[in-house]
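Intended use. Records like the one below are meant for learning the mapping from a protein sequence to its folded structure. Do not use them to infer anything beyond what is encoded.
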Amino acid sequence: MLHGWILSDASFYTFDQPVIAFSELLFGLDNLASHVASALCYGIVAVSTVALAMTNSRGPARLARCGAAIAMLAVPLLVLANVRIALGPPDHMGTAVFLLVSFLLIDRAPGKRYMAPLLCLALCAGQLGDVTVRYVAVPAIILVCSYRVLAARTIRIADTVIALAAIVSVPLEYLVRAAMLHFGSFLMVPPTTQLAPLRQWPHNATLTLHAVRQLFGAVVTPGDPLGLAGTVFGSICMFAALAGLVKVIVTWRSASRAEQFLCVAIVANIAAYQFTTIPRIFSAYEMSAVLPCGAVLASRAVVPATLSGLRRARIAAAAVVAALLPLAAAATVPPATGFGNTTGLGTTLIPWLEAHHLSYGLASYWNSSAITMQAGNKVALRTIQGFRGHDALIRNWETDIFWYDPSRYDASFVVLERGDPSLTAAQVTRAFGRPISVHDVANWVIMIYDRNLLKQVMQPRLKSVQ
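Structure written out for the chain above:
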């Protein structure tokens, strides 16, 4: 239930969290568990993408479609600024599993009795973890099935049942969430659903285009392993996805349900991004599902369902090479550098804190959890964000309110990263007073006090938490 926790606007409760918990169970709380969890999540997305891409294909065509889909999913790994979208923290990429699995279930078992209940449960679970499923997958399924019923001019049992399953999943998720809250589960920050003013739409369009290009690796970033070649390859993949989208639109009547679902889902995800207040310069992760959905459409558009003769061997070989090239190049991506980089913590800051018996303190949002994880919780830093007079404020975002209970814990120091504007020495001194000692360790500043700082940490009102 995660009682006492305040999560973000997406809990990732039904996919990313269980995968991370499984990794931590095997490897403990450290960097390895984090990397394994990220790889597992993206690997499951890749498997779901390939399974949907290969549907209705035969022989070498299956291999070719597999290669094309994998190539597109590997491209973002070549862009340094884009790695966090694919292999970073939970940020909607894992949510694509619920879209892909739902569409795959409908595509392969439209007339089976078990299909509708499973679809309803899958969509409910997806919405419980990320409301993106409610605004992207559910509308896509309802719209496509409604069109197919109207086009047939009769109540087609399969499409009607599929649409009803999608509709029922919404109130079902509300009931499940209400039950969880009744029994004391975590709280959440409501998702951003505010429409942007009309005057902001042109600027949003620019940001949306940049976000789509970033998703497909079609942006130039200094230090990328393949440089301009990688950007060109990413652009080819983006246009291949666009070609797949256009093909479905042009051949709409003969397209399969899955292809229609994917097409509408991509449009819905981009629209939900474009016409709201979500767009920012580094927020492409908000429509992460566009990449795997586009990969499916591209592979189906580029590779026919069946191949024969010499053409078969050439296309299959090209697809395999296309998949291996970005994967091999991605292995050469160097670690991130600059602000927010936690490389070297295990050899500098954490050993120093342990040697001085400093095990519980405060830090900024981007450093607290990273340091705590790399220390295996032997050093625990809790997030403070902003100040009100002589009190520091808890950030109501991915935090446990019990961490700040002064009767349970004693926080006697603050860790600052040089160049971090979110938490400075001047702010800390203004709120907590002058520390008894200040220490410089590599790129870090440690301010030590002789009292429990948690007595001066307060929680803002929870008016925006549900």
